[in-house]
């Protein structure tokens, strides 16, 4: 039998399996019995392949299952019936995997979302969710997705990269890591910026290693990805609205609530909305040592985006007041990017300074043509803060 014929037969047997009233036997046994009964005339290799495909359709994620079992795959990207793309070692590559029909793809999407209590349909064609293992899932279906349903799965690694791993991979040099570690210990407020897939969250998680073990840390995320190693960590995760449109809990609500939880530090996985104003307020009123990420291509862009997001809160504060808060709240901006070969690297570290009209930056470190350069000394204020933090740690 051809591959397409085996796939059609697997789809038919999977439908019959779901319609079978005898659900008492274990699923694997039911699948094996069904294949032996309905495909007894096929040769052994074909039956084995048929068994595998029926099992994937009934219990796994169909054609995606082998990709998700590959430890080298970091992200899986499906766009309709075209070949599936994956990310390995930071680089995108096309695979020979593809869905035979849109119905098969929809079936996999439903199988992913059903255990999460989520659904996607024409009324709600966008879904962003987290799998039980921590992997992030995004689904877009027609009419928004023109070429068929789009499914993106970002794999979660149970053991995130540590600070030492970043040095080994060339993301950050040892002298720069020592400086950032001292800044974290000194309770400086750090903002990590970069584009999608640049490794912002990985770097944030690595820098969190330098938070003291005796500190109470509250993490706030849209989808829980951070894995802090301190013994006293409270993890909060936003909740989207339910099927009835109610029950939403936003990042902004969680930031406000975190202030009532006696945190030593607040770690916001990503600032992307009006919660920026509440975070600035928290950082300006004594909650030093906080960490967060933001989408931006440079330190200057990161501060401007932070101002813009804070203005989205709609409380009527003048822009000048927001700029003053940014200048008071953020001490350092760490910029990261992904190169064409898939490598990630910290390309800029800038100190936030007060200038006429608000906040400005002084570039302390820059990576140019692969060569690290320390471009300026710390200001007296930040230098004294880090020195005091280093003495206290010692």
Structural class: alpha/beta
Q: Could you say what the CATH architecture of the largest domain is?
A: 3-Layer(aba) Sandwich
Overall domain count: 3
- The helix-strand sequence is HHHHEEEHEEEHHEHEEHEHEHHEEEEH
* Fraction in beta strands: 15-25%
CATH topology of the largest domain: Rossmann fold
Individual helix count: 13
CATH superfamily of the largest domain: P-loop containing nucleotide triphosphate hydrolases
Coarse shape = elongated
**Can you tell me the residue ranges where pLDDT is under 50 for at least 5 consecutive residues?**
none
Can you describe this structure?
This protein has 394 residues and is α/β, with parallel strands linked by helices. It has 3 domains: 59 residues; 96 residues, Beta-Lactamase (2-Layer Sandwich), CATH 3.30.450; 231 residues, P-loop containing nucleotide triphosphate hydrolases (Rossmann fold). It is 37% helix and 22% strand. It has 13 helices and 15 strands. The strands form 2 sheets. A 9-stranded mixed sheet has the order 9-8-10-11-7-12-13-14-15, with helices on both faces. Strands 3-2-1-6-5-4 form a 6-stranded antiparallel sheet. α9 packs parallel to α10 and α10 packs across α11. The radius of gyration is 25 Å and the shape is elongated. The termini are far apart.
């Amino acid at each position: 039998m051809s591959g397409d014929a085996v796939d059609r037969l697997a789809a038919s047997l999977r439908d019959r399996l779901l319609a079978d009233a005898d659900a008492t036997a274990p699923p694997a046994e039911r699948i094996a019995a069904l294949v032996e009964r309905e495909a007894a005339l096929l040769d052994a290799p074909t039956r084995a392949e048929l068994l595998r495909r029926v099992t994937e359709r009934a219990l796994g994620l169909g054609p995606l299952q082998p990709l998700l079992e590959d430890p080298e795959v970091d992200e899986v990207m499906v766009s309709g019936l075209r070949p599936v793309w994956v990310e390995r070692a930071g680089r995108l590559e096309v695979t020979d995997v593809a869905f035979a029909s849109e119905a098969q793809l929809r079936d996999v999407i439903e199988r992913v979302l059903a255990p999460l209590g989520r659904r996607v349909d024409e009324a709600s064609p966008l879904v962003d969710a987290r799998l039980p293992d921590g992997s992030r899932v995004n689904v877009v279906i027609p009419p928004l997705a023109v070429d068929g349903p789009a499914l993106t799965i970002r794999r979660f690694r149970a053991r995130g990269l540590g600070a030492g791993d970043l040095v080994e991979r060339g993301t950050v040099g040892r002298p720069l890591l020592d400086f950032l570690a001292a800044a974290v210990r000194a309770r400086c407020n750090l903002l990590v910026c970069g584009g999608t897939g640049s490794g912002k969250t990985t770097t944030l998680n690595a820098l969190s290693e330098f938070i003291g073990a005796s500190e109470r840390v509250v993490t706030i995320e849209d989808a829980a990805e951070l894995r802090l190693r301190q013994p006293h960590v409270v993890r909060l995760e936003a909740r989207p609205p339910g099927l009835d449109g109610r029950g939403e809990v936003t990042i902004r609500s969680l930031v406000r609530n975190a202030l009532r939880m006696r945190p030593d530090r607040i770690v916001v996985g990503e600032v992307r909305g009006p919660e920026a104003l509440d975070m600035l307020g928290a950082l300006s009123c004594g909650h030093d040592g906080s960490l967060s990420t933001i989408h931006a291509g440079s330190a200057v862009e990161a501060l401007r985006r932070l101002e813009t997001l804070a203005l989205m809160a709609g409380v009527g504060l003048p822009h000048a007041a927001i700029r003053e808060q940014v200048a008071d709240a953020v001490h350092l901006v760490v910029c990261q990017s992904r190169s064409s070969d898939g490598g990630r690297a910290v390309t800029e570290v800038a100190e936030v300074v007060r200038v006429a009209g608000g906040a400005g930056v002084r570039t302390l470190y820059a990576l140019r043509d692969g060569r690290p350069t320390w471009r300026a000394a710390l200001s007296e204020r930040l230098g004294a803060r880090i020195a005091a933090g280093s003495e206290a740690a010692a």
